Queue: 4 jobs
Job 1
Amino acid sequence: MRNFLFILSILISFTTFSQELKCDVVVNAQQTGNENVQVFKTLENQLNEFVNNTQWTNKTFALQERINCSMVIIINDYDNDTFRASIQIRSSRPIFNSSYSSPVYNFNDRDFTFKYLEFQNLNYNSIQFESNLVSVIAYHIYIILAMDADTFSLNGGEEYYAQARSILSYSQQSNFIGWKPEDGLQSRFSLIDNIMSPTYKEIRSVLYNYHIDGLDNMNQNPKSGKDKIAASLMQLEVLNNRRPNSFILRVFFDAKAEEIEDIFSDGPSVNITDLATALTRIAPMHTSKWRNINF
């Protein structure tokens, strides 16, 4: 009986009590010239605990279902409790019957200024602004959750995108950059506005079809998987014809360009002449990669 209870406790810990994210948060202060100041290590430790131990959804994630992600905060300058930084966020999702993880979200948020006192409490409030540090981190966490859900279910990330928009809305009362329409075309405002706009609706169906029909079938039938990936990417030409060089397309290809190059540069040959031409039009900044794909 004792052994049974021990095994049961292990099974429960693997299935009911783990959080949604397995995230590595790094605070890099080399550019300040004072990277060994203790406040930076304290901030890094607190953020790792905050991100990984907060329950961000009402869903249960098993340990193996946690989303792998990373956040690298580059501190450019600081003065007392004011920090001027950028943050690079990346996330990936596992591919069925494979040890491979596919990149989903890759975003460099360059306007990240926040106030922080060492050991201050980091608390997320879903309906109220607490600090720009908490708001920016929470916003990107919900984008991670939303994009990941979109890769498993068509428009499956709706509730998480809505929460990211809610954070955006109440954070606009602050004087921090990135939350308002006038803050540029590559801001947090622009990102969620693009994702949730019907104008860019194809991006979410591509996230779903690319992964479910394409990558998740690659192990079983590589040729069919490649064909499905090519077909899903062709949907982006419709979006590009409507809104050429849109921000959300750049976000998509920042995550996916290298993977697409690898997929179509190896394995069984498929006819992707039309895709290669379309990719050059849709994402010309990655033309050097498109030249490497094989027809």
Note: The first strand starts at residue 21 and ends at 28.
Job 2
Amino acid sequence: MKKTNAARILDRLKISYELIEYEVDESDLSAVHLAATAGVPIEKVFKTLVLEGDKNGNFVCIIPGGEEIDLKKAAVASANKKVALIHMKDLEPLTGYIRGGCSPLGMKKNFPVYIDEAAFNQNFIYISAGIRGMQIKLSPADLMMACKANKTKITQED
């Protein structure tokens, strides 16, 4: 199994993790589909979103795969007035990652990272390893440390 930049960062930090491979469906890159394909509960699969704020530039949010980001909460967390998801065409030039393979670890720049507090209800979570078809299984606390992330509530209420 090929090591990704995200995995090498965790190795360097001496953080324990597991790499999980799964079959990629190019027509459905959603976290819900990934969870079903990989046979893992959706509440343990987290997606990485890149946003842009009007005051503080780009930042990263890690939220449960089955949830939607609350842009107002993300704006408050990141000290912006307004935020928006970046355009897909900007993802790779900005982060070095493609849609469906965007990891919060190992982006071209170290952007501020916000992890939804729901992650901390799980013993471990899955995040992208930085390529389609591979996830990293690790503890939320270890991810928070590796990304120097802030814990906050950034998903929509039901």
Note: The longest strand covers residues 46-53.
Job 3
Amino acid sequence: METKIDIAGVVLETERLLLRPFQDSDLDDFFAYASVPGVGEMAGWAHHRTREDSRTVLSRFMEERDVFAIVHKRDGKVIGSVGVHDSWATQDAQYSGLRIKDLGFVLSKDYWGQGLMPEAARIVIDYCFRELGLDALTCGHFVENTRSQRVIEKLGFHYVKTLKLHARTLGKRFDTKCYILFKTSTSRVDREPAQR
């Protein structure tokens, strides 16, 4: 079932992070992490070679209003993003009639290994179920991306199947493990505060 996402004006907060819509002033921070080789490629997009690459994507984020910027409170920098996008599951008869979206995320390499991505994703999951009324969320990772796999499993998603999905900006198809999380199985997500 098609569900429209619009995060304009939404701010979510965790102990270490603020999640909010992207803004023009985020360009330098965005380019700083999106231009590092290997960061975007693990999420299905080519790393940004120029500030114009980042400006183009940033403009799309602001226009489509379905991607949260992750701001590190202590450092005052945008260090990644969590997006709520269309899901592969909407084409699967097994999930027809469900309000369902896909969670996508990326984090600056400088902040890996600190538990920040699960912290950011949990508050967005909570927002999706409590405020948007979604029935389920999907998530996925390229088979070799074990770092994302650990985050997805830590969040409580359950493996469904492996699909060969096309990453447009990389111009290739990748074996992608697909997962699902139903609203009824998210009691531990409630530990984080809801929308601020």
Note: The longest strand covers residues 172-182.
Job 4
Amino acid sequence: MNALILAMLAALCFGAGMITSRVGLRHVDARSGAAISIPVATLLFVIAAPFTVELSAFNLTAALIFALVGLFYPALVTLLTFRANEELGPTVTSAISGTAPLFAMLAAALLLGEQIPPQAAIAALGVAAGVALLSWRPGATRGRMPGRALVWPVAGAVVRGVAQAGAKAGLLLWGNPFAASVIGYLVSSTAVLGAEGLRRGGRKAVSRDGLLWFAATGTVNGAAMVLMYSALAMAPVSTVAPVIAAYPLVTALASALFLRGEKISVQIICGAVITVTAIIYLAAFRTS
């Protein structure tokens, strides 16, 4: 299957995961939700591992890279996103998160020696602009926004981007997306469960509905990760990262259609058009 199609499916799953987590947050706090969703995905990967991971192809260096990536993504990215939401709210956090493909391409160029075509950089900028427009809500930011608070969403975008380049490095040595996922998620689960165990206060009681919605979130996010790694195994980071970053488009449209959390405004339409146009431009360049 074409890498762009896999990346689009990954973005679809990441966007769906945002919707299921929004519903789950009505019943469980965000950090407890992460301590449910990531281990659920890990359990599914462990169950599937005997059928999807060939140990005969095992590469120790690649496994260590996958483990290192798992420490940062999704574990650290999740915690940084929570802190950014606390400090700045979801509007600024989502907008800044759209810059992740720029950091991914820079990391790929520095760490992997990838040549970044100008067309890919333009597409990444287009996606970032479209996501910012989709996410921005006039008057939704909190009154005072200290500059140092921007460290959290920027750090999240940097880590997300570098993690994609790191995963690509591991996949060049051991091109098994399931191996990358199961190793990364095992480390991520350990990290988030450890963070949850050290946490004091602020928890909501975990209800049955919250458990089910975050289990669904873990399932679709796990599928998104496999699809993203499959795309990265087939194509350069500069092809995959901008498409993955378009997942807020899925979230915005699905929220408007199913949750009634958004109204289809001119702003959302413009953001969608810019994002889709950037991806079509990237696809046309890659297939030409």
Note: The chain has a mean pLDDT of 86.
